[in-house]
Design a protein that fits this description.
The complex is a heterotrimer of chains A (about 260), B (about 325) and C (about 525). Chain A is an all-alpha fold and about 260 residues long. Chain A is about 75% helix and about 0% strand. The two termini of chain A are about 25 Å apart. Chain B folds into 2 domains: about 45 residues, no CATH class; about 210 residues, MetI-like fold. Chain B contains 12 helices and no strands. Chain C folds into 3 domains: about 180 residues, 3-Layer(aba) Sandwich (D-Maltodextrin-Binding Protein, domain 2), CATH 3.40.190; about 120 residues, Dipeptide-binding Protein, Domain 1 (Dipeptide-binding Protein, domain 1, Alpha-Beta Complex); about 210 residues, Dipeptide-binding Protein, Domain 3 (Dipeptide-binding Protein, domain 3). Helices cover about 25% and strands about 20% of the residues of chain C. The longest helix of chain C has 18 residues. The radius of gyration of chain C is 23 Å and the shape is globular. At the A-B interface, helix 4, helix 5, helix 8 and helix 10 of A face helix 1, helix 6, helix 7, helix 10 and helix 11 of B.
Chain lengths: ~260, ~325, ~525
């Protein structure tokens, strides 16, 4: 459960950023630019003299917020679509799934960049873009689970006793199919972090001086030969956080797996 | 088998239509006049020749009609002209698509080079240090942002040591050796990312197969471990791996967007990125459509391959 | 001041334009001798140039069009005009005019009639002749109604263009205009036949008469040029120029990628090396730094056409709240300097003040005077470039500190330009260009027809002063007019010129004969590569 630990660390950074790194991460200190890592500035300073460590800690807030909201959007739309498609089947299923196929045919980054760029820069639009591109995957998963559970005994029983469709969906299918969705959420978090970093890297994410790990990489790249620490630490933060989410997802899957096997 | 193929083909058609509709519709997400998106800002909307252009492109018709006309033009290869350079989009596509395909092939080569040995090793020596290392490495491959890997590679291989060029492209027809040198960093960057998921897939499906009955039977018959591994297990385990490989091609094409931009590779990815940012919609539409269609057909091909390889299907 | 009708001696420096002030040498020949920017003269200044080879150059801005008519004026475009095209005149490295297609020219006493005598041996790449009719075609094309030529408004002063015979062009102006000679003289001349034949494709298959012709270019990739063996200028060895076989030009906006490739030898010439990198390059034995008569100014723009910045006191509050010296020190790494207006310190028309003064008490007072005692929230739109990002993030805390609460919005260049040309920006950051050629180069900021006036600054007073300055050839009078312009501009605070960073190019030592002229054009005709 290393994954859970890592994610927890990141969450703590995000929540208590102002305690861990009290200096304003956006304030330039023009006399202390491009200092290499040293005591007082564990990760060095950037081209405006800002402490990199502090910016990374504050950046956790941005990344987690985007990840949480984006996954939220994905779930909000993906799960109902999958449930409906799986439950009603036939034409509804065919239409919805073709639509999901169509969206999924676009490479995720391409679609995210296209949507975010068209909507305009900024973190809200980036979050929307990331959320939307994840919908097909979750929808497909929810549909699969719905199909699997649909024919189970308790569902047949519920139908026989006259329960309405909505009731069946919410009280029976959803809880029993939830396991893979939770795993998907964790993996979705990982993807969201990566995609947000990519969008920020090309200038579509958080506006300056908001410290986003991706935009830190973007702004640090011109100094790659002179101040490599600007390019190393934000990337490390992104990788570790994504790493944590993936392991979290793996761990959750292992927890749920035996339960699934036993059905 | 044929029936299966036809079925899948038929299923693909509505997907293609929907995709083209999405691509076409992107332009309407823009605030402002979509005509400007197609013809470019700074044009004089009252000008007679511009009016003619609007008519020719049916830009004043209702949206569904526009879509049909646009689709028709695309099918004949007329993707319009780039808003910024005024050159036909199909010219740019024709020049840049082969480059991206070359990059994708090199990246797949890198991916296979890494994943096959690692995945097999991890499964064969399950639980050992090799397994842990391989698994760890593959997760790293998944977690590292491609553009960060690109930056690191540039830092260590191009800046510090000048072993490999940090950007550019040479056609293999001009100089195969140079082509290889220029392809190296971008291909490695893309390849490592894909290697992550493929290694995991090879390992897990190999493990699954190794515990299957027929493998145990083979072992019981006294066949040596290695023969079992190679002859029976690997072949069967490769089937889902092929699927993953095929699916990762989609990611490859997507990842190429940023990698091509960083390494200045004149492929379709960097074309698209530039076009998206300069609001060059004819190029965005054409490029996105081409990539998406390629992904759809690759998936189709993978499905077919799956059907051929796996005796249980088709 | 009346002037007798005499031909202006092309080579002898004349008092019309350019006192000879101290300048740094711009050439790189092994002998280090100064050379005139007339292509033949640079070329002939080398003793035994080696022929052949491909020069690879990297510009900052991408190539957007080979045709000046449809160019978006990126640096990649401007550089290649001198490869593809000849013009009537060129400008030497000391700011004087030298003949090119025009062998001599005269101006009438009243300054309204310009007569150019052309060479008769110049051919376009398609074989057609460059004669007076072709010149007339070009000028008319650039100045037509609805022209997309980036500096079309500078040609609006033309009344008529006539080509009475094959080697004579007569242009009459509506009013006297001193910068006119530079504007019309350095415009690239394209082949009329090709324009008619190729239509829209001309921007990618351009045909000129210059030393290089286009081999291939698609948008977003390298532009490749081949030597044109029928060029009319001779080299030192008696054969036609250019010495090179081919040239490759690529736009690489990323400073560090451009530099990396210069150091590794992928590029032979790098248009611009950032101030921070210059220190590293100084110690590289393979590369020479070339100082140019060019700098990049950074400008803060406020939109005076709508609220809130139609309020002058508010604009002045903004101007007083930022420390421009600190900003330019940071992005210039010591090589930058503050400016009152984008004029190079080396130029005869340099004006150093009045500049906006950094004083937070003044800022607060002006805020109150403007009617915003509790401050105001504004949006700061910038273009997605590293330096702009950097400057904006330095500016924001200064503004926040006086209660001008700023939100930075990063846009792509096209979107930013559309926003500001549509007069919908609030506060914006932009870059410009400055050479030592003529003060009128900076008139775009104040013009009511130029797209370069992004903020929509409308000052009839300034426009009158500009017209005055352009109508006279008296340098002292022109300088006076511009001094008043600077005064009004600083007071109005629509454009606050923050500072400028000099442009330094980098060239590998195997390149000989490379010259950047006064108008910031590269002369490649006389360049040769040694191995």
């Amino acid at each position: 459960m290393i994954g859970a630990v890592i994610v927890l660390i990141v969450v703590i950074c995000a929540l208590f950023a102002s305690v861990i790194a009290p200096e304003n991460p956006g304030l330039p200190v023009l006399t202390a630019t491009l200092k290499s890592p040293q005591s007082g500035h564990w990760f060095g300073t950037d081209e405006l003299g800002r402490d990199v460590f502090g910016r990374i800690v504050h950046g956790a807030r941005v990344s987690l917020r985007v990840a949480a909201l984006a996954v939220g959007i994905t779930m909000l739309f993906g799960v109902p679509i999958g449930l409906i498609a799986g439950f009603w089947g036939r034409y509804v299923d065919a239409v919805l799934m073709r639509l999901m196929d169509a969206i999924q045919a676009f490479p995720m980054i391409l679609l995210a960049i296209a949507i975010a760029s068209t909507l305009g820069p900024g973190i809200t639009n980036a979050t929307i873009a990331i959320g939307v591109v994840g919908i097909p995957g979750v929808a497909r998963l929810a549909r699969g689970e719905t199909l699997r559970v649909k024919s189970a005994e308790y569902v047949t029983a519920a139908r026989a006793s006259g329960s309405g469709t909505g009731r069946i969906l919410i009280r029976h299918i959803l809880p029993n199919g939830a396991a893979p969705l939770i795993v998907a959420a964790a993996n979705g978090g990982a993807a969201a972090i990566l995609t947000e970093a990519a969008l920020s890297f090309v200038g579509l994410g958080a506006a300056p001086p908001n410290p986003s790990w991706g935009s830190m990489l973007q702004q640090g790249y011109p100094y790659v030969s002179l101040a490599p620490w600007l390019s190393i630490f934000p990337g490390l933060a992104i990788s570790l956080t994504t790493f944590g989410f993936i392991f979290l997802g793996d761990g959750l899957r292992d927890i749920f797996d035996p339960k699934l096997r036993n059905r | 088998m044929v029936r299966f193929a036809l079925q899948r083909l038929v299923q693909t058609i509505p997907v293609l239509f929907l995709m083209s509709a999405i691509v076409f519709g992107l332009i309407f997400l823009l605030p402002g006049d979509p005509v400007l998106g197609m013809l470019g800002p700074g044009i004089d909307l009252d000008d007679a020749s511009v009016q003619q252009m609007r008519e020719d492109l049916h830009l004043d018709d209702p949206i569904p009609v526009q879509y049909v006309h646009w689709l028709g033009r695309c099918l004949t290869g007329d993707f319009g002209r780039s808003v910024s350079s005024k050159q036909p989009v199909s010219d740019a596509l024709r020049k840049r698509l082969p480059v991206s395909i070359q990059l994708a092939c090199c990246a797949i080569f890198v991916t296979l080079l890494i994943s096959l040995p690692l995945g097999v090793l991890a499964a064969a020596k399950r639980g050992s240090i090799w397994d842990v290392l391989a698994s760890g490495f593959s997760v790293i491959g998944l977690a590292i942002p491609g553009f960060w890997l690109a930056i690191l590679l540039v830092l260590f291989l191009a800046v510090r040591h000048s072993w490999l060029p940090s950007s550019g492209y040479v056609s293999p027809l001009d100089s195969p050796l140079q082509w290889l040198r220029y392809m190296a960093l971008p291909a490695i960057t893309l390849g490592v990312g894909g290697a992550g998921s493929l290694t995991r897939q090879i390992r897990s499906s190999l493990l699954e197969v190794l515990s299957e009955d027929y493998v145990r039977t083979a072992r019981a018959k006294g066949l040596r471990g290695q023969t079992v591994l190679v002859r029976h297990a690997l072949r069967n385990a490769l089937i889902p791996a092929v699927t993953v490989l095929g699916l990762s091609l989609g990611n490859l094409l997507g990842g190429s967007l940023i990698v091509e931009s960083i390494f200045l590779v004149p492929g379709i990815g960097s074309l698209l990125v530039n076009a998206i940012f300069t609001r060059d919609f004819p190029v965005v539409q054409a490029g996105t459509l081409v990539i998406a269609v390629m992904v759809v057909f690759i998936n189709l091909a993978v499905d077919m391959l799956y059907g051929i390889l796996d005796p249980r299907i088709g | 001041m009346s002037q007798s009708k005499q031909p202006i001696d092309p080579i002898v420096p004349h008092t019309l334009f350019g006192q000879l002030t101290r300048r740094q040498l711009l050439t790189l020949t092994a002998a280090g001798a100064a050379a005139l920017a007339v292509r033949g003269d640079i070329a002939r200044a080398q003793d035994a140039p080696s022929r052949g080879g491909t020069l690879r150059a990297a510009a900052v801005g991408p190539v957007t069009s080979l045709d000046p008519f449809t160019s978006k004026l990126s640096s990649g475009d401007q550089l290649l005009w001198r490869f593809l095209y000849d013009s009537l005149l060129t400008v030497t490295s000391t700011g004087d005019f030298a003949p090119e297609v025009a062998t001599e020219w005269t101006v009438s006493d009243d300054g309204l009639t310009y007569t150019f005598t052309l060479r008769s041996d110049v051919k376009f790449h398609d074989g057609t002749a460059l004669d007076a009719a072709a010149v007339k075609f070009n000028i008319d094309r650039y100045r037509q109604e609805g022209s997309t030529y980036p500096t079309a408004d500078r040609l609006k002063v033309i009344d008529t263009v006539e080509a009475p015979d094959a080697t004579t062009v007569v242009i009459t102006l509506k009013t006297p205009n001193t910068p006119f000679l530079f504007n019309v003289g350095t415009a690239g001349i394209v082949s009329p036949t090709a324009v008619d034949a190729l239509g829209e494709d001309f921007s990618s298959k351009a045909v000129g008469s210059g030393p290089f012709k286009i081999r291939e270019w698609t948008s977003g990739s390298t532009a490749t040029f081949d030597r044109w063996d029928q060029y009319w200028v001779q080299g030192a060895d008696g054969q036609p120029l250019p010495y090179l076989d081919s040239v490759e030009l690529e736009g690489v906006p990323d400073d560090s990628v451009r530099l990396l490739n210069l150091r590794s030898g992928e590029f032979d010439i790098n248009e611009r090396i950032s101030p921070l990198d210059q220190q590293t390059v100084k110690s590289d034995p393979n590369i020479t730094l070339v100082t140019t008569e060019h700098a990049t100014p950074y400008i803060l723009a406020l939109n005076p056409t709508k609220a809130p910045f139609d309020n002058k006191a508010l604009r002045q509050a903004v101007a007083a709240s930022i420390d421009r010296q600190a900003i330019i020190d940071n992005v210039g790494y010591g090589t930058g300097y503050t400016i009152a207006i984008p004029f190079l310190p080396d130029s005869w028309f340099y004006i150093d003040g009045p500049q906006a003064v950094f004083d937070t008490s003044v800022a607060t007072a002006k805020l109150a005077e403007a009617g915003y005692p509790d401050g105001i929230d504004i949006t700061f739109t910038i273009i997605n470039r590293p330096t702009d990002n950097q400057i904006a993030q330095i500016i924001k805390p200064y503004l926040d500190a006086v209660n001008i609460r700023t939100t930075i919005q990063v846009l792509e260049r096209t979107t930013w330009v559309d926003l500001w040309n549509g007069r919908n920006g609030e506060m914006g950051l932009l870059q410009g260009g400055m050479t030592a050629q003529d003060p009128d180069e900076q008139s775009g900021w104040f013009s009511d027809t130029s797209l370069a006036n992004y903020a929509g600054y409308d000052s009839p007073q300034i426009r009158d002063l500009i017209a005055q300055a352009n109508a006279t050839t008296d340098q002292a009078a022109r300088l006076e007019a511009w001094k008043q312009i600077v005064q009004i501009n600083t007071d109005d605070a629509v454009y606050t010129f923050i500072g400028a960073v000099p442009t330094v190019a980098g060239v590998r030592n195997n390149v000989a004969g490379f010259e950047i002229d006064f108008g910031y054009f590269w002369e490649l005709a006389g360049v040769s590569l040694s191995q």
